[in-house]
Amino acid sequence: MSMIVPTRRVVVDGDACPVKTEIAATVRQCGATALLVSSHAHVLNPEPSVEVVTVDAGNQSADLYIANVLKRGDILVTGDYGLAALGLARGSSVLTPRGKLIRESDIEGLLEQRHFSAKLRRGGVRTKGPSSFTAEDRDRFQQKLTALLRGMQEIPDT
To answer: Tell me, what's the pLDDT at 1?
Structure first.
């Protein structure tokens, strides 16, 4: 009697995602699939094991599409903390493109930080943006995604 292993799916907020190549390679290596969602402004090409969905260029179109298709057990790749909160609520694992696994215990602080920074910017204060994306970020992401797809329960942050 063979055991059926559920297919893991990686759902990607694709507009500003710098690790699309790594996602495609990793899902193929791990026997999973990916769903890349982006607006018309970003042209993404489907590949084996990678489905591409293009949505309207509206402000939240990709997020709304993802919100409607995300399922328990999916792995959501996003740097958007609002979408990350929704993913956690749906029972998905959430991984940033820099390889940080976002947990329930992290999300409230991340959303508060985002709100505070936006408030400062509206008041004319210049806030520091994210640091440059590095090869180490890319490697960390690929290691964490591989571990999630292979079903490892604990993935220590480095």
So the answer is: 41
